[in-house]
Design brief:
With 368 residues, this protein is α/β, with parallel strands linked by helices.
Amino acid sequence: MEALVNPSIRFWNGKRVLLTGHTGFKGAWLHLWLRSLGAQVHGLSLAPETTPNLSVLTGIAEDSVVSTLGDIRDKVSLNRLFEREQPDIVLHLAAQALVRRSYSDPIESFSTNVLGTLQVLDAASRCASVRAVVVVTTDKCYENKEWLWPYRENEALGGHDPYSASKACTEIATAAWRSSLSDMPAYNHRQSPLAIATARAGNVFGGGDWALDRLVPDFFRAQAAGQELEIRNPAARRPWQHVLEPLAGYLLLAEHLWNGNAQEAWNFGPAMDDVQPVSYIVDRLFGVEDGKREWRRADGHQPHEANFLALDASKARAQLGWRPRLPLGEALDWTHDWYVRQARNADAAELTLEQIARYMALAGTRQA
């Protein structure tokens, strides 16, 4: 069996990290993980959108020492933040990340995801301290042909909906920036090279997600309210994975970028056995056996969503030493446990750090 590889404590200890999107679900988990590794991390994001919100419950969002509330599209403020923080590494997660919202406000999705990313790349390129940038996109950046095998990094990009298309555009724009950076006169002052890569993950879930129009948060909201859960597309199959899986990939990728390697696109997806229909996830959370249904399909017209999508992460396994370590059932158990304990007033930061430590312990702590 392949060895499990953890992010390196020795590498991250003392690194100055600028993390965009830290008030989002994935961003809050990553902020806490980086701090547990000894990194000096500062977050930039819009104000939290949901109540409750993980970044608020863990004290991240309101701590001005480690958090700045702002818009990545604000060029002046963004450059000032880079100048002040002098980061070594940029992890760019800030995005408009909801498919259904992109239908109602497509311009916002393209503006945030494409122009916002370019502003981050511009600021990072102007800041001489930055050596590595990881731009996080999505599995939905691929031109989905509804075929039955997983997408590899060299497959065609595209998108039926504005969100997916905006992320495909982000991939193209980032690749162009990376390939032409050395020829751009505005950045010729750099004394050290800047390594840039993109990361594509699957349908991520875990404790502390309260975003709208996401399956797992919708389930726990319905449970708390005593309401019947509605599902838009129960047969749709997705590459489900616990939030810690892709976050581990982002961290390992940044380590490789630091040494000037891995400057390309990377998939971080689950094993094919974990590419399951929406109905499987809900039944598993309900603890349903023998096909007893405790949800119903949503009525009325629903915007287009893909029926099948999977990622081939063999390149990350072979070259980064990354591979998924939480089977889907176990990942759902961890998630259920997080929400239940938090609802009983357990501390959100302690719950999150406890699961991060458990995840790291699956491989042992790598010191170099």
